[in-house]
Amino acid sequence: MHLSEILNHLGEDRQSYFNAVSPPIIQSSNFAFPTVSEFRNALENELDNTIYTRGNNPTVAILRKKIAALENAEDALLFGSGSAAVAAAVIGNLEAGDHLICVQSPYSWTHKLVTKFLVRFGITHTFVDGTSLEAIQQAITPKTKVLLLESPNSMTFQIQDLEACAKIAKANDLISIIDNSYCSPLFQKPIDFGIDLSVHSVTKYLNGHSDVVAGAICGNKVLIKKIFESELMTLGGILSPSDAGLILRGLRTLELRMARSSESCATVTRWLSAQPGVERVWYPFAEDFGQLALAKKQMSGTGGLFSISLRAKSILEMEKFCDGLTRFLLAASWGGHESLFLPICGLYDVKGRDNPSLPWNLVRFYIGLEDPKWLIEDLRNALKELG
Ligand SMILES: *Cc1c(COP(=O)(O)O)cnc(C)c1O
């Protein structure tokens, strides 16, 4: 289906709501039935009938159709956060005594899910270097049920060969799951490579305006129905109709926003890689990125995320550079209109937290929708702070 059809029309049954161009937010927890037999029929398939908003809601259902189509998936489920979606996809395919393989250094709350949460229910894990297919293959045991990928990773951008990983998973009866938040469905379609479930933090590009936290799982009807009937309905981590309405509005400009962010990101990273204060630019489409050929094979773009390491002599010097930035906001997350940075030095020496494994001279950047020349001026000024 054409991207324009998905973003502008798919799922929108305008005649059923006064021909409104913008879909209504159906702010109702429950839905009434005229007869007992219609109620009984609806209960046979709660996933596709509107009974109660924890299961299904007409506004959320429009979004569900669009996000599934964006991923070339048969179906999708929406959640109240990306972390709820990752957790539901993983928990839904594991039982006590099972083992899962996860790529090393995943998103922090995915790491907590694996190391702190699942172990309480007798699920063991192995972290592997996802750039090595042999490492993945060697980690498989008779108890392994899930292969959990994140490609690219959102701090240093290591990628996994999705086609090869899907083949390994199929040959060993594993469910393959990927966190596809970095690329968005526009720039990477894991299901086309044979991955079973593609998960998103919808908070990032799909909503795109830094005003909603949401998540999604995309996959075939059988896997989606299984997660719906168990994790979604039982744990109840659903998306509200009003947030679904905001995300539908955000999706209208998804193609424009992604194109702008990735083009500006290429401009900014090219400029940064020529600066003497910059030790290294971490960016999957950079000429010196170790996995460039694979990145170009499976990703059609990058979006706006990259990292740099600086030739700074101390954390204090890093802080001076960071505090010198005035047009980027220091904030977590990414994927909105506004350019951001996340300094790893800010995660060092935090009371009650371990220091991170990433070096303190690393800064993760997100390029939003501003003029890249205006952003480069800001970076040029801040780099003057390096001694
Ligand atoms: C933000 C993020 C998540 C978590 O999503 P939330 O919407 O914040 O719950 C998961 N994975 C990656 C890669 C992320 O960047």
Feature tags:
binds pyridoxal-5'-phosphate; Aspartate Aminotransferase, domain 2; globular; seven-stranded mixed sheet; alpha/beta; 12 strands; Aspartate Aminotransferase, domain 1; 387 residues
Describe the structure.
With 387 residues, the protein is an alpha/beta fold. It is 37% helix and 15% strand. The chain contains 14 helices and twelve strands. It has helices at 3-8, 36-43, 58-70, 82-91, 108-117, 133-139, 162-171, 184-187, 221-235, 241-251, 254-273, 292-298, 315-323, 372-383, and strands at 75-79, 99-103, 124-128, 144-150, 175-179, 197-201, 215-219, 278-282, 305-310, 329-330, 340-343, 362-366. The strands form two sheets. A seven-stranded mixed β-sheet has the order 1-7-6-5-4-2-3, sandwiched between helices. A five-stranded mixed β-sheet has the order 8-9-12-11-10, with helices on one face. It starts with a helix and ends with a helix. 45% of the residues are buried. The site of pyridoxal-5'-phosphate has 12 residues, from helix 4. Residues 81-83, 86, 107, 154, 179, 181, 201, 203, 213, 215 line the site of pyridoxal-5'-phosphate.
Strand order of the largest sheet: 1-7-6-5-4-2-3
Largest sheet: 7 strands, mixed
The end-to-end distance, rounded to whole angstroms, is 54 Å
When the domains are counted, the total is 2
Give a short summary of the structure.
Helix content is 37%, strand content 15%. The chain is of the alpha/beta class. The chain has two domains: 3-251, Type I PLP-dependent aspartate aminotransferase-like (Major domain) (Aspartate Aminotransferase, domain 2, 3-Layer(aba) Sandwich), CATH 3.40.640.10; 254-383, Aspartate Aminotransferase, domain 1.
